[in-house]
Amino acid sequence: MTAVSGVARGDVLPARDFPIHRADLVRYAGASGDFNIIHWNERVATSVGLPNVIAHGMFTMATAARVVTDWTGDPGSVVEYGVRFTRPVAVPDPDGAVLHVEATVREVREDGLVEVDLTASVDGQTVMAKARVVTRPPVVANGAA
Protein backbone atom coordinates (compact mmCIF):
# COMPACT_ATOMS: atom_id res chain seq x y z
CA MET A 1 0.00 0.00 0.00
CA THR A 2 1.28 3.45 -0.85
CA ALA A 3 0.29 6.90 0.36
CA VAL A 4 -1.89 9.01 -1.91
CA SER A 5 0.35 11.76 -3.29
CA GLY A 6 -2.54 13.98 -4.44
CA VAL A 7 -3.32 15.49 -1.02
CA ALA A 8 -2.77 19.25 -1.04
CA ARG A 9 -3.32 22.24 1.20
CA GLY A 10 -6.86 23.53 0.80
CA ASP A 11 -8.37 20.17 -0.17
CA VAL A 12 -11.89 19.92 1.20
CA LEU A 13 -12.98 16.60 2.67
CA PRO A 14 -16.58 15.45 2.22
CA ALA A 15 -18.77 17.13 4.86
CA ARG A 16 -20.99 14.94 7.02
CA ASP A 17 -24.08 15.27 9.16
CA PHE A 18 -24.20 13.02 12.22
CA PRO A 19 -27.55 12.58 13.98
CA ILE A 20 -27.18 12.36 17.77
CA HIS A 21 -29.94 10.94 19.96
CA ARG A 22 -30.27 10.29 23.68
CA ALA A 23 -29.73 6.57 23.08
CA ASP A 24 -26.29 7.40 21.61
CA LEU A 25 -25.41 9.24 24.83
CA VAL A 26 -26.51 6.31 26.97
CA ARG A 27 -24.41 3.92 24.88
CA TYR A 28 -21.42 6.26 25.13
CA ALA A 29 -21.85 6.55 28.90
CA GLY A 30 -21.72 2.77 29.17
CA ALA A 31 -18.64 2.52 26.98
CA SER A 32 -16.77 5.40 28.63
CA GLY A 33 -17.92 4.97 32.22
CA ASP A 34 -18.99 8.65 32.29
CA PHE A 35 -22.48 8.48 33.81
CA ASN A 36 -22.72 12.18 34.71
CA ILE A 37 -26.43 12.86 35.08
CA ILE A 38 -26.33 15.93 32.77
CA HIS A 39 -25.88 13.55 29.84
CA TRP A 40 -29.16 11.70 30.39
CA ASN A 41 -31.49 13.54 32.78
CA GLU A 42 -33.14 16.65 31.31
CA ARG A 43 -34.54 17.89 34.63
CA VAL A 44 -31.10 17.91 36.25
CA ALA A 45 -29.36 19.32 33.15
CA THR A 46 -31.73 22.29 32.91
CA SER A 47 -31.66 22.84 36.70
CA VAL A 48 -27.92 23.52 36.50
CA GLY A 49 -28.34 26.00 33.65
CA LEU A 50 -27.80 23.79 30.62
CA PRO A 51 -30.15 24.12 27.65
CA ASN A 52 -31.01 20.40 27.77
CA VAL A 53 -29.24 17.08 28.16
CA ILE A 54 -25.83 17.56 26.54
CA ALA A 55 -23.55 15.22 24.60
CA HIS A 56 -20.27 14.21 26.21
CA GLY A 57 -17.38 16.33 24.89
CA MET A 58 -15.35 13.26 23.98
CA PHE A 59 -18.36 11.81 22.15
CA THR A 60 -18.63 15.03 20.12
CA MET A 61 -14.90 14.98 19.35
CA ALA A 62 -14.93 11.33 18.30
CA THR A 63 -17.97 11.82 16.10
CA ALA A 64 -16.42 14.84 14.36
CA ALA A 65 -13.15 12.97 13.76
CA ARG A 66 -15.05 10.42 11.68
CA VAL A 67 -14.88 12.85 8.76
CA VAL A 68 -11.10 12.40 8.80
CA THR A 69 -11.03 8.67 9.49
CA ASP A 70 -13.61 8.03 6.78
CA TRP A 71 -11.38 10.01 4.38
CA THR A 72 -8.20 8.14 5.33
CA GLY A 73 -9.96 4.79 5.44
CA ASP A 74 -8.24 3.98 8.72
CA PRO A 75 -9.71 4.74 12.18
CA GLY A 76 -6.17 4.36 13.57
CA SER A 77 -4.70 7.03 11.28
CA VAL A 78 -5.13 9.92 13.73
CA VAL A 79 -1.81 10.84 15.35
CA GLU A 80 -2.92 13.95 17.25
CA TYR A 81 -6.23 15.73 17.85
CA GLY A 82 -7.16 18.81 19.81
CA VAL A 83 -10.21 21.06 20.09
CA ARG A 84 -11.65 23.86 22.16
CA PHE A 85 -15.34 23.47 22.95
CA THR A 86 -17.35 26.63 22.33
CA ARG A 87 -20.80 25.44 23.43
CA PRO A 88 -22.40 22.19 24.50
CA VAL A 89 -24.29 19.98 22.07
CA ALA A 90 -27.84 19.95 23.42
CA VAL A 91 -29.70 16.74 22.59
CA PRO A 92 -33.45 17.28 22.95
CA ASP A 93 -35.79 14.31 23.16
CA PRO A 94 -37.09 12.81 20.91
CA ASP A 95 -35.60 14.58 17.87
CA GLY A 96 -31.99 14.78 18.98
CA ALA A 97 -29.42 17.00 17.29
CA VAL A 98 -27.43 16.94 14.07
CA LEU A 99 -23.68 17.56 14.26
CA HIS A 100 -22.51 19.07 10.95
CA VAL A 101 -18.78 18.63 10.30
CA GLU A 102 -16.65 20.16 7.57
CA ALA A 103 -12.92 19.62 7.11
CA THR A 104 -10.12 21.22 5.11
CA VAL A 105 -6.49 20.18 4.71
CA ARG A 106 -4.47 22.86 6.47
CA GLU A 107 -1.04 21.51 5.62
CA VAL A 108 0.79 18.52 4.22
CA ARG A 109 3.88 18.32 6.38
CA GLU A 110 7.36 17.32 5.27
CA ASP A 111 7.13 14.22 7.48
CA GLY A 112 4.16 13.06 5.37
CA LEU A 113 1.52 13.75 8.00
CA VAL A 114 -1.53 15.82 7.11
CA GLU A 115 -3.03 18.56 9.30
CA VAL A 116 -6.79 18.90 8.91
CA ASP A 117 -8.93 21.71 10.35
CA LEU A 118 -12.46 20.73 11.40
CA THR A 119 -15.52 22.92 11.78
CA ALA A 120 -18.35 21.39 13.81
CA SER A 121 -21.73 23.01 14.30
CA VAL A 122 -25.27 22.28 15.42
CA ASP A 123 -28.11 24.38 14.01
CA GLY A 124 -25.54 26.75 12.50
CA GLN A 125 -23.82 27.37 15.85
CA THR A 126 -20.16 26.38 16.19
CA VAL A 127 -19.61 23.80 18.95
CA MET A 128 -15.85 23.21 18.53
CA ALA A 129 -13.16 25.78 17.71
CA LYS A 130 -9.51 25.35 16.85
CA ALA A 131 -10.24 21.72 16.02
CA ARG A 132 -7.20 20.23 14.34
CA VAL A 133 -6.40 16.63 13.47
CA VAL A 134 -2.94 15.40 12.53
CA THR A 135 -3.28 12.20 10.55
CA ARG A 136 -1.49 9.84 8.27
CA PRO A 137 -2.71 10.42 4.70
CA PRO A 138 -5.21 8.19 2.94
CA VAL A 139 -3.83 5.01 1.44
CA VAL A 140 -4.71 3.05 -1.66
CA ALA A 141 -4.05 -0.58 -2.49
CA ASN A 142 -1.96 -1.47 -5.54
CA GLY A 143 -1.44 2.18 -6.49
CA ALA A 144 -5.10 2.75 -7.42
CA ALA A 145 -6.65 6.07 -6.50
Structural features, described:
By secondary structure, the protein is an alpha+beta fold. The protein has one domain (2-143): Thiol Ester Dehydrase, Chain A. Helices cover 23% and strands 37% of the residues. The protein is built from 3 helices and 7 strands. The chain has helices spanning 22-32, 42-47, 57-72; strands at 2-3, 12-20, 78-85, 97-108, 114-122, 125-135, 139-140. The strands form 2 sheets. It has a 5-stranded antiparallel beta sheet with strand order 2-4-5-6-3. The chain is elongated. The N and C termini lie close together (11 Å). The model has no long low-confidence stretch (mean pLDDT 93).
Q: What spatial order of strands do you see in the largest sheet?
A: 2-4-5-6-3
Outline type: elongated
Number of helices: 3
C-alpha-based Rg, rounded: 17 Å
- Tell me the helix content: 10-25%
Going by CATH, the architecture would be Roll
* Mean model confidence by pLDDT: 93
The percentage of residues in β strands lies in 35-45%
Largest sheet: 5 strands, antiparallel
**Secondary-structure-derived class:** alpha+beta
Which residues sit in consecutive blocks of at least 5 with pLDDT less than 50? none
SSE string, helix = H, strand = E? EEHHHEEEEE
Tell me how many strands there are: 7
**How many independent structural domains?**
1
